[in-house]
Amino acid sequence: MWLKNLKPLLVATFGIILVVFSTNVFAQEQHTNADSAKKPFDPTTVIMHHVQDAHSFHFFTIGDFNAVIPLPVILYSPQKGLSVFLSSRFGHKGENTFDGYKLGESEKITSVDPGVTVFDFSLTRNAVQMFLICGLFIIFMIKIARKYQKGIGVNTAPSGAQNFMEPIIIFLRENLAKENLGLRWERYTPFLLTTFFFILTNSLFGLVPGVANVTGNIAFTLLLGIVALVVMLAGTTSHFWKHLFWPPGVPIAVKFILAPIELAGELFMKPGALVIRLFANMVAGHIVILAFVSLIFIFGELSHVAGLSFSPFSIIFIIFDYFLEILIAFIQAFIFTVLLAIFTGQGFEGSDHDVAPGSHDGML
Amino acid sequence: MELLKPDLGLMFWTLIAFLITLWLLGKFAWKPILKGLEAREKNIKESIQAAENVKKEMADLKSENESLLAKARDERAQMMREAKETRDKIIADAKEQARQETNKIVSDAQSVINQQKMAALTELKNNVGKLVIEVSEKILRRELSSKDAQEKFIRDLAENIELN
Questions:
Q1: In a domain, A189, yes or no
Q2: CA pair distance A180, A231, nearest whole angstrom
Q3: A110, A255: one domain
Q4: Nearest CA-CA partner of A141 in B73, B63, B27
Q5: Phi and psi of A147, rounded to 5°?
């Protein structure tokens, strides 16, 4: 019987701990964002600050102590050349200027002198985290690959992490590569596998509280979209371009209308859909979680009782959303990869005899 | 919206990270993994094929064994039959020969017995004839003397005759 009572008790305890803990953090957050502690809680600033890229890993601030890992700032200006320094030079609130540069709104570095243009190649928290995750994943996969080279999983049953990775790899190989890419599946499988795990690992790690939201950044998804477009176009055949500019089976007048639409669809909409979908899904999940956290403080501003009494609901929704986000991380990585495979397959459709023509719907 | 403005620096680093990941994983991870998986799949396929072949061979062997067994059984029955025939023939032959021998012995014995009997009869006849002649001679001699003497003589003779 006591087990039945234990569950709500645990939730309540956990909730209180979380509320008390996050109250501190958010109080400090407020303090950091605003000049005076009396300034009202602004959820938009807080959420945007968490979702966007930054020049440092900022974990929390208690009093005068800042738990911050400064990251290198790499700037290139045609007038001033290259300058490399740590982000801590700007001061922990970004109040200082350094070398003629200042840290502006949304962590954007601009030049003090308006005549100087700046290209920002800083290793931001997204970039650093991405390299870290990729490095860990590469080590993890190479260790698994070593096992296969030793014959484990080839002549014997697979062991350990092989059992976890193998079904995913086989699933992607069978259902993505072989299904959509016909005879050329072997050439594209490493690329598809890398894309899938690149997105998946970054999405999943982005869910850890306090770290950067890599896949929910438009720059990340845009670059993947450009890579997808390049790969897609690299595989196209004359058959594809003929269909694009001279669609068969329609009157000539319609061909002139259809060609630009087709061209825009192939070159911008297909990869654009990939870019926007991944970005929107990932950023939305983070915003929802942060919004539920912010709700506690919005209520807390009305009265402490309202904030405390609302916190359990927020926490339940946040936990629910976390599970949803894990699911979405897998789904979005899969959708990105499957559409990439389909678009690439469509690019050389008709050139290989075993590619089933027109059987795929590009708009999922 | 700052959120929707792609940052050139991050794009640059993403490209670097992606290309490094693609190169390293492609060379050191996906290639051996996919190769290993394919080898295993081929191995499994071949093993199943080999098992099927062995099964088929076993079935062939079994049917062959059965036919051999049946053939052996037939041969045994044939041999048994032949042996029985030979035995019967030997017994019949032996019986026939024995019968013939017996018959010959019996017929020989009978002819010997008959011969002996005839010889004995002849001797008896001869002896009886002799005796009759002797008796007749004596009777004739007595008749010449007296009547009384004759009678006496006859009586004596009669007494002397031993009917042996």
A1: yes
A2: 14
A3: no
A4: B27
A5: -60, -45
Cα-Cα end-to-end distance for chain B = 177
Name the token pair of A86: 């740590």
For the record, the structure tokens of A217 come out as: 């950044």
Nearest CB partner across the interface for A154, out of B11, B24, B36 = B36
CB pairs < 8 Å spanning A and B: 138
Say what the ipTM of the complex is. 0.81
A240: helix, coil or strand? Answer: helix
| Yes or no, beta carbons of A53 and B33 under 8 Å apart | no
State whether residue A149 is helix, strand or coil.
helix
Distance CA B49, CA B45 (A): 6
- Closest Cα of chain A to B15: distance in Å? 7
A 268-287 → B contacts, CB under 8 A: 283
Question: Distance between CA A324 and CA A273 in Å, rounded?
Answer: 22
Q: At what angle do helices A304-347 and A218-234 cross, to 10 degrees?
A: 10
Query: Are the Cβ atoms of B15 and A223 closer than 8 angstroms?
Result: yes
Distance of CA A99 to the CA centre of its chain: 32
Q: What is the pLDDT of residues A308-338, one digit of tens each?
A: 999 999 999 999 999 999 999 999 999 999 9
How many domains does chain A fold into? 2
Please tell me which of the candidates A106, A120, A191 has its beta carbon nearest to residue B22: A191
**How far are the Cα atoms of A44, A214, A247, B116 from residue A256, in angstroms, in the given order?**
47, 41, 9, 153
Report the C-alpha gap between A148 and A166 in whole angstroms. Answer: 11
Q: Which two tokens stand for residue B69?
A: 């067994």
Q: Where are the domains of chain B?
A: 30-160
A98 DSSP β-pair partners: A101
Q: Which of A107, A134, A156, A169 has the highest number of chain B CBs within 10 A, making it the mutation to test binding with B?
A: A134
Contact A122 B37 (CB under 8 A): no
Residues A214 and A201 in one domain: yes
* Residues A105, A231 within the same domain: no
Q: Among A206, A204, A200, A174, which residue's Cα sits nearest to residue A189? A: A174
Range of the domain at A74: 69-123
Residue A125 neighbours by CB distance under 10 Å: 24
| Residue A130 and residue A101 share a domain | no
pLDDT in tens, A94-144: 778 888 888 877 778 888 888 888 888 999 999 999 999 999 999 999 999
Q: Any CB–CB contact under 8 A between B44 and chain A?
A: no
